[in-house]
Design goal:
The protein contains 10 helices and 7 strands. The chain has 274 residues and is an alpha/beta fold. The chain has 2 domains: 65 residues, no CATH class; 187 residues, 3-Layer(aba) Sandwich (Cytidine Deaminase, domain 2), CATH 3.40.140.10. The strands form 2 sheets. The chain has a 5-stranded mixed sheet with strand order 4-3-5-6-7, sandwiched between helices. Strands 1-2 form a two-stranded parallel sheet.
Amino acid sequence: IELNSQQDLTFLWRKMSELTAKPRTALEIAEKAIAITGASSDETSVTETPSPPADDANRTQGVILVGNKQTKAPLQATPAEIKRMLDIIEHDILPQTESGVKEGNKVFGAAILGHDLTCDVASTNCETECPLFHGEVKCIFDWSKKTPASERGSRAQSGIFLSTHEPCCMCISSILWTGFQRIFYLLPYETTASQGIPHDINTMHELWGVNSYRKRNKYFASACIQEMVASLDEGEEKRNSQKQAERLLSRYNELSSKYHKEKFDNKRNSLVLG
């Protein structure tokens, strides 16, 4: 459902609280919201989200969007920039992750890059130290310690956040709050789930009834490096990047298998969301 209204969002939700008296369909809620805001048909469009398949009936596919005209443009990267990000994953992040998995941590890592693609900080998951230290959050924490507070906002906005795996709901929110507007990740949620960790998708569904965050919104745009490699023009650069991406995927699969085999014997692993 899409609502393009100039009314104040807070006012809208306060008025919509009366709708909680009984269950309503998404279309009924949208029509009521239009009546409350007084939006004209020119300002507001309402479409009913198709019912999900029977085997997915409990998953909410629709969301309500208000004032979504400031969506960031799709991310782009040259073959050289893609190669640079793959190199950072392979040479700056992965070695730390290999050590981290030996300590009983998960396989997720991240790096913060400057506007010129220099690697400012690379980190890996460290949940055995703190449950909040997913790879992305640990990276932000380490970066914040070395970056003066007065420079963090501007450097984040001009920089790039690079993640080995698509960030979970906690991590994507943390990246947003830090100020990054460009987010690249190597492996999507589907790969993470196939590696035995489906919590990224599950937590979003359980908390908010959606299967993913919006990949492009007014705060940031995100892009999957695997998909960007696949879309490159045919040639040596594409072949080399494909080989490197496949090599990284293979290594992350190995590390994930090691983590799962050893996690139950690791006394430092809380296994809350193992």
